[in-house]
What does this fold into?
Amino acid sequence: MAGSPESPERVDRAQNEAPKATLRAVDIGTIPDYPIEPGERLESHYFVEFHHNRWLTSSFRLLADPEVRAYGFDLFMVAQNEAPVGTLPTDDRLLSRLLGLDLAHWQSLLKREITPLHKWELCNCAGEIRWAHPVVQEMSVKALGRRQRYIEATEMARERKRYERLKLQILKVGGTSRMAADESLIARLDRWFLTNHSGRNRTEALVREALERMSTGF
It folds into this structure.
């Protein structure tokens, strides 16, 4: 009869048949640590290094069903926006949402001979268990290395500019050319400004004050 309540037996059966997130009991002491800290972020991370020949000849691409292959490739890209970068959550509900699938569909893919999580392994991310893939991890570590080198190169360029400005300002406030050529002195002055006047313009008055303090052993 339309509108009549379902029997308790039908409700229980429906609940038992509904897909559930997979629970994984693991010993955290046996799981390798992930090499990237959770707080390490890749700002402006718009592209990744991707070896197309490696992908084209991989066993995953050659043997997986086309649907599995497509979602597996998506997971490589999804992991680039996760924290730590290059990892995935282990909760099937989250993974299905990240791929735009319903939970039942996602879990059906996990029953294939080759699944979208092919070669993904559990890792320890500062106490949180997540999925990591050796190739994705390699890509992420390289990307962080490039970012760090860029940061270091940018800071060195900024430091050189600060030093050059200090040399000119020393001469303007009456300092000698020998003082302006003393790299050790310039480095000490720069550290003093960074410690005591970070973010402020290095005016001639402040440079004069720094030199006076230096003469008294600052």
